[in-house]
Write a structure and sequence with these properties.
By secondary structure, the protein is α+β, with helices and mostly antiparallel strands. It has 29 helices and 26 strands. The strands form 4 sheets. It has a 9-stranded mixed beta sheet, with no helix packed on it. Strands 17-18-19-20-21-22-23 form a 7-stranded mixed beta sheet.
Length: about 900
């Protein structure tokens, strides 16, 4: 196939070179490059390809690697280099300064924050925020010229400033004073790395500003790319308002995303339904949107008797404008470039090949911006497009039993699902078994009715608003049907599957085996179909011709029939092996990211809160607390709230559980009802099957606790109250011994489920014995609870000290007394605490007591996630950031 498509082969080698340069550097890159270079002559020596083509492909691979390395090496911050040169280590992460530049991105105002990208023209840096800079005073207030991009975050202080920020546009020049900050890195294994995300956009610094009053704006430029893009933003905004007049309520946000790519306006709940069902591609402007709009324009022009040549020219002029209008995303650029190339070849009446056109589009985009290769939208867009070209012809013979009118649509949908599946589970770690049904049901409604008719209604409304609103009525009805179907499908439990992120080798094998299996089966179906006789003649063309006389027997016929039958069984056996291999691959990919027979404890960094995942040798998953975002805003400050507020459970814990292949939770232990321990559990209970909730036997007077309990009851999740003496045994090598709260069910205040204000004192405390090692979990227990436990138990710990102590209450001075540490005697301690908390946690005296005890201290504020692997009587620890970065053995103290 590649021999017939040299451009496709060149593009694949170029992309492979990009990938090698991205994945490997230093000596490892040269080692791999040298090894691949030595392999290049082998296909030519075997006669599979010509020497000339082999050299060309090797050159494409090497040039692709060099091109990526050149751009990546130059992707550094000039500002950071200057800070470092002047000898202030504080400035490598944070510094005060002032900037002047031009807004080069749409301004997004959400709640009390405005975000945009600024292209600097000059900047001034003023030292560290604390004012203790070690820099030479002569360098202060020195002005530097720069063209670097920075991501600006403006914290708005009033509703008036919100309106003011909403008027900012691309192309506008401004000056402002604030703080340079380095973007945050991933604090959990497999977590989102904001610094890396911005670097792929060639942005290395955040510039944070308090209030919009200190920002000085200049009149926007009239010429230049940013100025023109600002006018495009204004046009998109005007079209969005027009869509809002045609479609009421939530439908306005949906149609804005569908027609002009404004995805942020759709209600979060409805967007989640589309995400869960694998339908978000409907909202992302892509090739299908471009094709539908081009078809409308071309058909209208031909209806008006415009010549074919003129129609093609008009459509070719429309494509760039449409790409700009719909947001200039990688998927839109890909479809636009492919469309322009295809229309040009059509105009020239040249024979074109879709794979070559796609390859040309990929090469053009990657030469323009190599970092497109790391963009999810780019990968999905090109992968699905290529998959449709390759897989649809192979799937169609398998669907001969379907009516001809729907056979093609089903083949396209199935092919898109097959191709997008590996990338979907790699990036999003979930796949709904109802995704195929949802696409088959909903996609035709959108493609055939909502999108074309909605676009026509929008265009006509510009001339006659009332007529546009009449045309919008059937679209409204279809939209309602769409979301009724989406809501019903999304509400079916048991169909959502969670997958760990597969390796690149797994993805490559999946594509190869799937393509090969479909190709072989499609060939056999064609061989057994209407042209079976021709195929058989072709297979036996080297044998003697059969006699033409009717009824005459040919002496070789039985032998040929036997040979054909044996070959059929060989092909069937080989295809069966391929299908079995694909099944094994899927089963292996679905397994959790944990080694059977090994225990794991993962203290997830959730900021100022607690969250730990215990995985037993038997494979049970127990979650201890779920973190939670604490807000101190007053009701009159509701304007500050974002459309989708950050919640650590939904944004941190749930994605990590999915990425690690956790399919269900055998238990969730709520140590107590404080927000920073249970706030994140709502998102977890909403998305994961949970076998049981274990609480401290009381309720907190909070909306979070009330909603969580109602959800548990509606999902029929059993709720148990922990008490001293209770034991849980998830498997033969794991035991949970609960030490607190005491069993006070017979006291007068315990009638029913009591509401307790001081939740810390009633924290669930338990000792985990896992594969011969001991771990103490303490929630937020205070000194009074420690003393009560010590007084009522002769030996809290027993003869063996605790190997690891989860320090209570984030290292607060109200916990972890000397008496408690003397009893527990931990070999290591873990403090779950926020890096920027305002409580002063962990307390200095607590740290001193822990240090004097001789044990190691692991802190999530400095080290990020702390992971422990338990097996063969040993504990191995690693942390995400800081020391120790590498895994090392935790030695028990004598």
């Amino acid at each position: 196939m590649m021999q017939r498509r040299p451009l496709a082969a060149f593009a694949c080698c170029w992309i492979a070179g990009n990938g090698l340069s991205y994945c490997a550097d230093g000596y490892m890159f040269w080692l791999l490059w040298s090894g691949l270079t030595l392999i290049v002559p082998l296909p030519a020596a075997l006669g599979r390809i010509s020497w000339k083509r082999g050299v060309m492909l090797w050159a494409a691979f090497s040039l692709g690697a060099a091109y990526w390395a050149y751009h990546d090496t130059g992707n550094v911050s000039e500002i950071g280099a200057r800070f470092t040169q002047h000898g202030d280590s504080q400035l490598t992460e944070e510094a005060e300064g002032s900037v002047e530049g031009t807004i080069i991105s749409p301004v997004k105002v959400d709640g009390d924050r405005a975000d945009f990208v600024l292209r600097l023209s000059k900047y001034v840096w003023l030292g560290s925020p604390e004012g203790n800079s070690n820099m030479d005073s002569r360098n202060l207030s020195q002005e530097y010229i720069s063209r670097e991009k920075v991501a600006v975050q403006v914290r708005l202080s009033s509703v008036k400033e919100v309106k003011q920020a909403s008027a900012w546009k691309r192309g506008q020049k401004l000056t402002m004073r604030g703080t340079f900050e380095r973007p945050g890195i991933a604090r959990n294994f497999g977590g989102f790395d904001y610094r890396k995300y911005l670097r792929n956009q060639r942005i290395h610094w955040l510039f944070k500003v308090k209030g919009a009053s200190g920002i000085n704006l200049f009149p926007p430029e009239r010429i230049g790319v940013p100025a023109w893009l600002g006018k495009v933003d204004g046009l998109r905004e005007a079209l969005g308002k027009r869509v809002g007049r045609l479609f009421p309520g939530w439908q306005a946000g949906y149609m804005q995303g569908l027609i002009i790519g404004l995805e942020d306006e759709l209600e979060p709940e409805k967007y989640d339904q589309f995400t869960n069902l694998g339908l978000t591609h409907i909202l992302a402007i892509s090739g299908s949107h471009v094709a539908i709009n081009i078809g409308l324009i071309f058909g209208l022009l031909r209806l008006c008797r415009v010549s074919r040549e003129t129609s093609l020219l008009v459509v070719m002029g429309f494509v760039p404008a449409y790409v700009l209008l719909t947001g200039f995303s990688p998927s839109v650029i890909r479809s636009g470039v492919m469309t322009l190339l295809g229309l040009y070849l059509l105009k020239k009446r040249l024979v074109k090949d879709g794979i070559n056109v796609l390859s040309a589009a990929a090469l053009l985009m990657l030469m323009w911006e190599p970092y497109f290769l790391l963009n999810v939208s780019f990968q999905l867009s090109f992968a699905v497009t290529a998959g449709l070209m390759l897989f649809v012809p192979l799937l169609t013979p398998h669907l001969r039993w379907l009516p001809e009118r729907i056979r093609g649509a089903v083949a396209i949908t199935v092919a898109a699902q097959l191709v997008s599946f590996p990338l979907t589970i790699y990036y999003f770690n979930q796949f709904s078994l109802l995704s195929l049904a949802a696409n088959l049901l909903i996609l035709p409604l959108v493609s055939l009715v909502a999108l074309p008719l909605g676009t026509v209604a929008l265009l006509i409304s510009g001339v006659w608003l009332r007529l546009g609103q009449w045309l919008a009525y059937p679209v409204r009805f279809v939209n309602s049907l769409t979301f009724v179907a989406a809501e019903w499908l999304d509400g079916r439990s048991g169909f959502m599957t969670f997958w760990k992120s597969p390796s690149l080798a797994w993805i490559a094998i999946f594509y190869i085996v799937t393509y090969w299996l479909l190709k072989r089966n499609a060939s056999e179906i064609r061989r057994d179909g209407p042209f079976a006789a021709a195929a058989e003649t072709s297979d036996l063309q080297d044998t003697a011709p059969l006699p033409l006389k009717t009824g005459a027997a040919h002496p070789a016929a039985p032998i040929l029939w036997k040979h054909s039958r044996n070959r059929h069984w060989i092909r069937a056996g080989f295809n069966g092996c391929l299908a079995l291999g694909l099944l094994v691959l899927l089963v292996f990919g679905y397994q959790p990211d944990y080694k059977p027979g090994t225990g794991y404890i993962q203290f997830i960094d959730v900021g100022q809160g607690d969250c730990a995942l215990i995985t037993t040798p038997g494979g049970s998953h127990i979650l201890v607390d779920g973190g939670g975002t604490v807000s101190f805003r007053k009701p009159q400050e509701a304007w500050r709230d974002r459309r989708v507020p950050f919640e650590v459970g939904a944004k941190t814990v749930v994605p990590l559980l999915k990425k690690r292949g956790v399919h269900r939770l055998d238990a969730i232990i709520l140590t107590h009802g404080d927000q920073d321990h249970i706030g994140g559990l709502q998102a977890i209970v909403d998305q994961f099957p949970v076998a049981a909730l274990v609480t401290n036997g009381s309720l907190a007077e909070s909306a979070t606790m009330t909603k969580l309990m109602k959800t548990a009851l509606s999902k029929e999740i059993p709720i148990y109250a922990a008490y001293r003496g209770m034991r849980l045994t998830p498997d033969a090598r794991t035991t949970l011994e609960f030490l607190s709260p005491p069993a006070d069910w017979d006291s007068p205040e315990a009638a029913g489920i009591p509401y307790v204000k001081n939740q810390n004192r009633r924290s669930v405390v338990f000792r985990l014995r896992l594969d011969g090692k001991s771990f103490m979990f303490t929630g937020d227990m205070d000194v009074a609870a420690e003393r009560e436990l010590l007084e009522n138990e002769e030996q809290v710990v027993g003869e063996d000290p605790v190997d690891v102590l989860k320090v209570a209450h984030h290292g607060s001075k109200t916990s972890t007394s000397a008496e408690w540490l003397q009893e527990v005697r931990p070999a290591a301690s873990v403090i779950s605490v926020g890096a920027t908390n305002t409580y002063g946690h962990p307390n200095g005296d607590v740290l001193k007591r822990l240090t004097e005890g001789g044990g190691s201290i692991y802190r999530t504020d400095r080290m990020g996630e702390v992971q422990m692997v338990i097996g063969k009587g040993e504990i191995w620890i690693r942390t995400k950031i800081g020391a120790p970065v590498l895994q090392h053995k935790l030695l028990k103290l004598n």
